[in-house]
Amino acid sequence: MTPAEFTSAMKGLGQNVSRETFSRLETYDALLRKWQAKINLVAKDSLQELWRRHFLDSAQLLPLLPPGNDPITDLGSGAGFPGLVLAMMTEREVHLVDSDQRKGAFLLECARQAGVLDRVKVHTTRIEAAQAWKAPIITARALAALDQLLAWAEPYLKPETVCLFLKGAKAEDELTLAGRSWNMATTRHGSLTDPSGVILKLSGIERRGQQ
């Protein structure tokens, strides 16, 4: 996918990519390729499809975000997907949580050069060790099975928290397992970038037995 095809795909989602936003993503592209030579940020073969496999995969969450300008907490951010992409494509404050110090340095530098450092907060700590805050929106991609993911997210949950999780072909099995321990309302959305993938939009999340 070319950058132009990315922009076209976003229009198909009802999302116009401004020139400023496009410039931010180009900066992200260049820095990721530069840093990839030193540290392993993404799978090497995925660089050839960076705009589809990482940028579009992240940006497809935009129309699923709750209205308003509530901040986003991205768990296990890695190279910044989906959290940093969402920071560049919205005006929301975004918290990026990842324990890898080198990836944290990359995220900070990328946010600085793209001009979004004022609203990006990087937390280089393990999720379970972080001083959790109440998060109205939580995102994660390819981080852990849903049951574990919800356990990590639990300290951040508010009654109105919405979670957007990018999952693969095992999503239904993960939902069945997680349903043994968690109550939640679930909406499924097909992935634009993975025919077997799904985006889970979860709300009303609470551990069973806590009603």
UniProtKB/TrEMBL annotation:
UniProt xrefs under PANTHER family: S-ADENOSYL-L-METHIONINE-DEPENDENT METHYLTRANSFERASES SUPERFAMILY PROTEIN
Summary of the function given for this chain in its UniProt record: Specifically methylates the N7 position of guanine in position 527 of 16S rRNA.
Subcellular location(s) of the protein: Cytoplasm
Superkingdom as given in the UniProt entry: Bacteria
One Pfam family of this chain: GidB
Catalytic activity: guanosine(527) in 16S rRNA + S-adenosyl-L-methionine = N(7)-methylguanosine(527) in 16S rRNA + S-adenosyl-L-homocysteine
BP-aspect Gene Ontology terms: methylation
Protein name: Ribosomal RNA small subunit methyltransferase G
Residues that bind S-adenosyl-L-methionine: 76, 81, 127-128, 141
GO molecular function: methyltransferase activity
Annotated NCBIfam families: rsmG_gidB
